[in-house]
Amino acid sequence: xxxxxxxxxxxxxxxxxxxxxxxxxxxxxxxxxxxxxxxxxxxxxxxxxxxxxxxxxxxxxxxxxxxxxxxxxxxxxxxxxxxxxxxxxxxxxxxxxxxxxxxxxxxxxxxxxxxxxxxxxxxxxxxxxxxxxxxxxxxxxxxxxxxxxxxxxxxxxxxxxxxxxxxxxxxxxxxxxxxxxxxxxxxxxxxxxxxxxxxxxxxxxxxxxxxxxxxxxxxxxxxxxxxxxxxxxxxxxxxxxxxxxxxxxxxxxxxxxxxxxxxxxxxxxxxxxxxxxxxxxxxxxxxxxxxxxxxxxxxxxxxxxxxxxxxxxxxxxxxxxxxxxxxxxxxxxxxxxxxxxxxxxxxxxxxxxxxxxxxxxxxxxxxxxxxxxxxxxxxxxxxxxxx
Amino acid sequence: xxxxxxxxxxxxxxxxxxxxxxxxxxxxxxxxxxxxxxxxxxxxxxxxxxxxxxxxxxxxxxxxxxxxxxxxxxxxxxxxxxxxxxxxxxxxxxxxxxxxxxxxxxxxxxxxxxxxxxxxxxxxxxxxxxxxxxxxxxxxxxxxxxxxxxxxxxxxxxxxxxxxxxxxxxxxxxxxxxxxxxxxxxxxxxxxxxxxxxxxxxxxxxxxxxxxxxxxxxxxxxxxxxxxxxxxxxxxxxxxxxxxxxxxxxxxxxxxxxxxxxxxxxxxxxxxxxxxxxxxxxxxxxxxxxxxxxxxxxxxxxxxxxxxxxxxxxxxxxxxxxxxxxxxxxxxxxxxxxxxxxxxxxxxxxxxxxxxxxxxxxxxxxxxxxxxxxxxxxxxxxxxxxx
Lengths: 387, 387
Hints:
- 2 copies of one chain form a homodimer.
- Chain A is of the alpha+beta class.
- Chain A has a domain of 53 residues.
- Helices cover 35% and strands 22% of the residues of chain A.
- In chain A, the strands form 3 sheets. Chain A has a 9-stranded mixed sheet.
- In chain A, helix 7 runs antiparallel to helix 8 and helix 9 runs antiparallel to helix 10.
- The longest helix of chain A is centred in the middle third of the chain and has 20 residues.
- Chains A and B meet through helix 1, strand 1, strand 2, helix 3 and strand 5 of A and helix 1, strand 1, strand 2, helix 3 and strand 5 of B.
- Chains A, B: It is found in: Cytoplasm.
- Chains A, B: GO terms for molecular function: glycosyltransferase activity; histidine-tRNA ligase activity.
- Chains A, B: One of its GO terms (biological process) is L-histidine biosynthetic process.
């Protein structure tokens, strides 16, 4: 390779890509479908900007994603701005400033692109779409339940009806370790062992706490069984409060969304950075990829809030495909009213800019499924022998 | 003011702002409405990333917007990336690379946010939404006409039926000045005089060309009259070719979209930087703000193309308002099927998370228009005397 070769203009930076037809339309329509379900449950849309001053973007819950934030200097103020890596802290900022006087519960929704400095290990994307809701004000099991039930309905509207919601309490393991007085020097290895769900290593590093931790590790699974284990476990009062709240939230979720697939992984904590209570990860059946995640946090530093953010790129991979829109090639002298009625009937009309002797062949060349003949759209069949 | 005061988290950099309810939803629904009209005419959506390597983002037609581009270093490759200030060069890149083998005419649509280093004089926004189409391949008047006709239908779908399309030939004035041999030292002042439409200054700096230039300045206005002046004017052969093509495009536009409000400003050139033929600016009636602009250019350096980009923020200001969605407050024990039927009927349902003795008062507090009573949504009237 020579340095003199011009760079390949088709080459995009790692983790950034072009969505081509039909994926770009499918993604956009899916996002609007999610937003329509959110709106039908009273969630009102906000649209924060792609860039903000670094100190507002990274304050509060935004601090957790500081190292994933690209920074730029604003030439007019010489202050640093950041490209948002996550929209939830922006929505929390709006709730705590411009909408501080709006009635609570405040229900907000949002959709947009975020940019992260580095892609993940499973998915390398650095530009990430988000579509989510935040329920700001109430700190009740019914609020947790609403967010999960509304997200579940939004996913169902895309044909994703068999998703599972995996609940977790990211504070539980650190709290047990703190309260058991595990020496600080042992904690990183113990946390790593818990993260890897390695029972032998947990036994090795967990001291007197090891039996309980391994019991909780084994509890991971369907919600009813996990709750039984948690109820029977010997917990400190503070841990018991967390578990009681989890139980109340599960009851509220099942009251609002009977039949939802709920699992609990009580000591999962990885990736939860600014959350203060129940958290949830959404998975498609049989897939390892997350469709979304969310949980309880403090908006503006002190206001209870709970939200869930879906990942449209992951939904695009998991959701059933959409039927392609039929395309009909029109001759140049087509009647405008007829063309309009075809569009209203769901066709994409493709205008010929010049007359063609063989309109059907031209339709095939242009990827049209239909051609206009005798005032009607007639399906064309691609010739297998060429012309 | 003290340096010790924490920065106001509500403060956003100049030209960047939060869209709040209901504007954020109105803008998003408007964009999807435009995209649906584009799709119904066979334009297929692409979604390029927000960031690209600088050398691909700023090559070709992108060079014209280089000084409006924020740059960032990609930490993994140490190469510079740019935040897109305009999507058209990205769509041209896709047409010239990933879609180089797709059949022509290639019809592409796109919608997304762009970031510019500096806001404009009329509108200070630095984050700009775009929604547009590009028709790549054909170099015919019918292609110019299609782009304008489809944009006009898209605007009409938002209730913007009385917009005007102002056509211009940004090459005409520079060509006449070049061919007339106006000394290079006089050209900047002459161009400035033309830009300001100052006939006295044009006479002063235009030499033997001044009468023709002032004739063309006066020609600006409704298309039919402007074309008469252009036909009668004494033009060089190259300029005559440009004008003949303009005339053919006007005929094709009116054939495809009879009744469209067309004006011509034959020597307007400002702001057209990578265009090679007919250009157009879209204005709402009685407003100075542009709703969009577009024109003919070379995609990938050598392929004829014509496009038009609408500005959703400007459409939001110009389009008639949408009716607010009715919101109904539901009691906590509402029947799920009833709630679902209300959403299907177009209501946003707002769930009470706890019982309320005065559901109607709570509905008013939450900005709901309706409350559920006897299984039906009943309008609530805000009390004027408080409670």
